[in-house]
Specification:
2 domains, 9 helices, homodimer, elongated, transport (chains A, B), Tetracycline Repressor, domain 2, transmembrane helix (chains A, B), SLC41_membr_dom_sf (chains A, B), membrane (chains A, B), mainly alpha
Chain lengths: ~240, ~240
C-alpha cells in the first residue's frame, strides 16, 4: 500500500463519516416531526396536550388535570348548547312525533364516528406527508363521495331494522333512511375540510379538528334531520 | 506522518463509522415506534389505518375508501342503536316531559368530549412511556375524580343557563344539574379504563378506544339521565 492510496482511503472514510452525519441529522429531524404531531392523539375533546403535560401527567393531582381541561370542555359545551336550542324550537314537532327523538343520539353518535374516521385517516396522511395542503380540493371531494356511499349502505340497513324490529312508523323510518346519507356526507365533508382550515390558520389540527367537527356535525345534522322530517311529513300529509 | 499513525487514524475513522452506523440504526428504530402509534390519530370512528392505507389514500377511488370503513361504522352504529332502544322504552316519560329530550344530544356530545380528552392525554402518555400499564389503577382513580370535578363546575354553569335563558322547568334543570357530574365521571372513568383494557387484550388502543368509549358513554349516560329523572320527578311529586 503506498502513501497515496492510504490517503485516498482516508478521504473516502472521511466522506463516509460526513454522509452518515447528515443522515443522523435527517433522522433526528424526522423524529421530531411525528413526536410533536402525536401529542393530540384521539383529539376528540381537545385541550392542548403539551410535552410537559404528558411528562407530569401521572403525578399531577386530579384537580390540576381537571382545571386544565374544563375550559376547552366549556367551549365545546357552549357550542353543543345549540343542539338544545334546535330541539327546543322543534318542540311541537317532537310532541307530535315523539319517535323522531329516539334517533337523535344515534344520529349524533354516527355523525361523530363518520367524521372521526375521515379526520383520523387525514391527520395520519398529513403527518406522513402523503397528503399535502395543495390536495385539499381532491380530498374533500373524495371524502364527500365516500360519505354519500357509506350513508346509503347503512341507511338501507338501518331503515328496515327500525321499521321491522323497533316498530317505528313508516314516515319516521323514511326520515331516518333519508337522513343517513345526508349526515354521512356532511360529516365526511366537514371531517375532510376542518384539518385543512386548521392548517391555513396555523392551528394544530390534531387538537381542534375532532371536537370542532363533532359540534358542527351535531348541530347541522340535527337541523337537516328536522328539515327532512318537515318535507317527508308534508308528503305523507301529516302535521309537522 | 508515519505509516503507523496513518493506520491508527484509519482505525479511528473506521470505529467512528461503526458508531455512527449504530446510531443510525437506533434512530431508525425510534422512528418506527411513533410512526406506528400515530396511525390512529383522532381515533374516534375507528377503522384500522395501516401504513399502506396512508400511502395509497390520496389515489384510491372514493368507493374503496368508503367500503374499507363501512364495516367499522356499522359495528359502532349497531352499538349506538341501544340509545334508540333506551329512548323508545322511556317513550311515556318523554311524552310527558318533552324537555328531557332537548338535552339528549348535548349530553351525548359532552360525554364524548370528556372521555375523548382523557383518552387523548392517556394515549400520548402511554406512547411517550410516562404512563405504563402498571399505573392503571392510579390513572383510572385520578380521572374519575377529575371527571367529578369538571362535571360539577360545568353543571353549576349549565343549570342556571337552561333555567334562566331557555326557560326550562325547575325539575328538568335539576335533572340536568345532577346528570352532568355523573356523566363526566362515567366518561372520564371509561376513557381511562378502555385504553388499558385494549392493551391487556393486545388490541391497538389508538384505533378502538375512542369510538368504543363514545358508544358506552352514550348508552350509559342516557340510562343514568333517565334514572336521575325518575328520582327527581318522584321527589317533586310528578308523574314519570
Amino acid at each position: 500500500m503506498t502513501g497515496k492510496t492510504e490517503s485516498s482511503v482516508l478521504g473516502e472514510l472521511k466522506e463516509k463519516i460526513l454522509e452518515q452525519k447528515a443522515e443522523i441529522e435527517k433522522l433526528k429531524q424526522q423524529l421530531k416531526g411525528p413526536a410533536k404531531s402525536s401529542g393530540g392523539h384521539g383529539g376528540h375533546g381537545g385541550g392542548d396536550v403539551s410535552e410537559e403535560d404528558i411528562a407530569n401527567y401521572l403525578d399531577e393531582p386530579f384537580y390540576t388535570t381537571s382545571l386544565k381541561r374544563v375550559g376547552w370542555l366549556g367551549i365545546f359545551l357552549a357550542s353543543l348548547s345549540f343542539t338544545a336550542i334546535i330541539m327546543n324550537s322543534f318542540e311541537h314537532t317532537l310532541e307530535k312525533h315523539i319517535e323522531l327523538s329516539y334517533f337523535v343520539p344515534l344520529l349524533a353518535g354516527h355523525g361523530g364516528n363518520t367524521g372521526g374516521q375521515t379526520i383520523g385517516t387525514l391527520l395520519s396522511a398529513l403527518s406522513a406527508g402523503t397528503v399535502q395542503p395543495k390536495h385539499a380540493a381532491k380530498v374533500i371531494f373524495k371524502e364527500a363521495l365516500a360519505g354519500v356511499l357509506s350513508g346509503m349502505i347503512l341507511g338501507v340497513i338501518v331503515g328496515p331494522v327500525a321499521y321491522k324490529l323497533m316498530g317505528i312508523s313508516y314516515h319516521v323510518t323514511t326520515v331516518l333512511f333519508l337522513t343517513m346519507p345526508l349526515l354521512s356526507t356532511v360529516a365526511a365533508t366537514l371531517g375532510a375540510t376542518i384539518p385543512f382550515v386548521c392548517i391555513w390558520f396555523g392551528l394544530d389540527p390534531s387538537v381542534i379538528a375532532a371536537p370542532a367537527m363533532t359540534s358542527l356535525v351535531d348541530v347541522s345534522g340535527l337541523l337537516g334531520y328536522f328539515v327532512i322530517a318537515n318535507q317527508v311529513f308534508k308528503l305523507y300529509g301529516l302535521e309537522f
